[in-house]
Amino acid sequence: MITDKNTWELEKDYLRRVINEISIQLNNGVNAASNYKKEAIEMQKNMWEDVRCAPTNSFDLEAPAQMWQYQMDLNNQARKYKLSTDKVSRLEKMYESPYFGRVDFIENGEEEAEKIYIGIYTLSTNNNMDILVYDWRAPISSMFYDYEIGECSYDCPAGSIGGKLLLKRQYKIENMNIVYMFDSSLSINDEMLKDILGKSTDNRMKTIVTSIQREQNAVIRNSQNKILIVEGPAGSGKTSIALHRAAYLLYKYRENMKSDNILVFSPNHVFEDYISNVLPELGEENIRRSTFIDFFENMFDSRYRIETMNQQMEYILARNLDKRRLRSIKFKASSQFLNILKRYMQHIEDGMSTKFKNLICKGTLIISADEILRTFKEDYFHFSFAKRLEKLRQRLFYLLEQHEEKRIKELLDNYIKENNLQEEALPEEEKKLAERKAREEIEPLKVDIMQMTYFDIYLLYIDLFRNIENFAKPVDEKESDGFISIANYTIRQLQRNIINYEDVAPIILLKTVLDTVSDTKSVKHVIIDEAQDYTVIHYEIIKKAFEHSNMTILGDLNQSVNGYMNIGSFGAISETFNAQDANSISLTKSYRSSKEIADFCREILNTQNNLEQLNRHGDKPRIIKVDKSNSSRRIAEDIINLKEKGFKLIAVICKTAGQCEELYKSVNSYVDITLISNQNEIYRGGVVVIPSYLAKGLEFDAVLVNSIEDSDYSKEEDRRLLYTVCTRALHELYLYYIENISDLIKNVNERYYTHDILI
Ligand SMILES: Nc1ncnc2c1ncn2[C@@H]1O[C@H](COP(=O)(O)OP(=O)(O)OP(=O)(O)O)[C@@H](O)[C@H]1O
Fold it and tell me: Which of 260, 295, 327, 689 would disulfide-bridge 652, Cβ 3.0–4.6 Å?
């Protein structure tokens, strides 16, 4: 902490200067915005007046041109208005706390060091000649995050600029006053981080611009790799980094990239809402957010009932699993199935040569099978498989129509000849007869065309399972039986118009490869958060659907909440994409939980890892044995105590939505609590009861795990789910049981928790 009086005076002076400049620009901006608005209203008035006064019946050639001019002027005015209101809102955001860091940098060959103040935006005067505050995303600002005192450099469009960092200072400025400042010779000061993270959280994710760490900065500013894969433990800042990276890209490529060019795939709507504040706080418009299934939703036919990811999770967690379904879920998440799908799609393409046949009508060849195949393969080469079939159908029907017309003419000519008639004397009845005859003759060919060009993705998918052994190449009888059982199960579900969640991605892949994809052209960058919960098939779809986009893929295998459908290894992701395009970065430090909670969570995983932890201390997690009759009251009392301690965000996390509903009913009579049992509900903070899989990605001041009974978390597949649940806690973690503690917890060394037995 800096106490030197002289330094304080100098810093206060600078802050005054900056705030004064912001005030001036703010005033100018507000005036400019109001003038643009007035002028626009005036223009609109003039335009309507001109329209009203224009002579109604005269043919005025100038009117459309004049209207067009008005429209152009109005658009221009609207653009200027938006630019000035954007600037005003930025200045307003800066006003109370204009910067948070400073580096003094002396460039090689220069004599004097430059003071670089860093804030969320740039503030400049004299037509951008003097920069009072640099945007945190500016190239020069990267030194604040990357370097300690000493040699340093930064990259800018002109190349690498080297020099020395003489000073690195951090500020806490509130209400236009410096609360404190640090000179940090090392990384961004841990004390400041502890101060940020030690506070009670908001119900939405916050920005971390003031304290981005070096390893995080490397991800945020990475521009070398088309596909960037980021692995990091719970709480290492993956989601935060992803959103800051989006803000960085919008700044760096501001000429070519707008917020709707970036798409983030998030696990559910609760999470989508949770992350919705970060970009607006950074002064950027929100990027597109969607769940995977929502993004591709329009591909599905309304006659099918599609199971959601959460419904499948409930099914898996409910424990009464049908073995066949379980085998089917695992199989459909495997690379073995991806290879089967690839072989099958190739077979569909190749099989067209046998599918087409000559179209012959009463001995007349309309088009040969070879010609149909050539048209399909060569003329429609640029279209997708399904589109080629559609075009081919149109073409064949056209040829059929032509043949029909020719045939009618031929029949009528014969009649005229046989009856020695003039054409005008042809009876109407005879014309109708000829038309009917020609139609009847071509009728079977219409059926042939429909059969040759029929395309139904669901039937194709069913067909795959009817012949799965041809594509699966089973190694032995047992495997073959397994395939047959999965095939029968899948066919039966689809015939009942049900698409299980595990079949959603394979069907989307078929549709993406063989048919059209949703419109993805505008997407230049895709962010995939919670990347561990997608399968190889999801990644194959992403590769195909967004082939021109760059990607940032972030996840943690230890948080694979679905034990049967996940990626399994991050190597599988890079293998999906072109190896030259992909690069992986690992984060090693975790920021969310107190050290005591983080240690406990690490023990649940039962693996050796060298993860670093921010040295923020708190109480040890508490394991609490309760009596069945009073467990809800006990949870309610703990919630009340936690609230009294000042914690605002408190979550009771149950394994399933069903358990949440039950618990909600009993706890709600003692304390005010909100139930979030499906992904469409909005999380507004306060005290919530939420199922395990919906809590992933979120964080709370205190987490109360409703039950660590061995009936809840006993299998190996539950380990990662339990880990994910516990790592949601920042400050306090309570875990309750009634009879027998889960083995996953029993193995945790007793020194990492306290154990209360309340009987
Ligand atoms: N550099 C940082 N400075 C301040 N806070 C940080 C920093 N990095 C991460 N945090 C905080 O740590 C917490 C965890 O961050 P985040 O949710 O982004 O991590 P994550 O890796 O996505 O977590 P998980 O995988 O467990 O969902 C958040 O409160 C975030 O604000």
Answer: 689
Which residue from 136, 231, 240 has its CB within 8 A of the most atoms of ligand 1, so it is best to mutate?
240
Q: Is 235 marked within a binding site?
A: yes
CB 517 within 8 A of CB 547: no
Low-confidence ranges of the chain (pLDDT < 70): 51-63, 185-189, 200-201, 319, 474-475, 679-680, 758-759
Its pTM stands at: 0.89
**Residue of the CA atom closest to atom 3 of ligand 1:** 211
> E-assigned strands of 38-149?
101-107, 114-119, 123-125, 130-135
pLDDT at 423: 77
Render pLDDT for 703-754 as a digit per residue (tens, 0 to 9): 999 999 999 998 888 999 999 999 999 999 999 999 999 999 998 999 999 9
- Residues 743 and 488: their CA atoms lie apart, in Å, by 37
The angle, 0 to 180 degrees and rounded to 10, between the axes of the packed helices 631-644 and 657-667 is: 80
Q: Are 471 and 464 in contact (CB under 8 A)?
A: yes
159 is in an annotated binding site: no
Domains of the chain, start order: 5-197 (no CATH), 209-296+520-590 (3.40.50.300), 352-455 (no CATH), 595-757 (3.40.50.300)
User: Measured between alpha carbons, how far is 269 from 290 in angstroms, rounded to an integer?
Assistant: 8
Q: Is ligand 1 within 6 A of the CB of residue 659?
A: no
The verdict on whether residue 238 carries a ligand-binding annotation is: yes
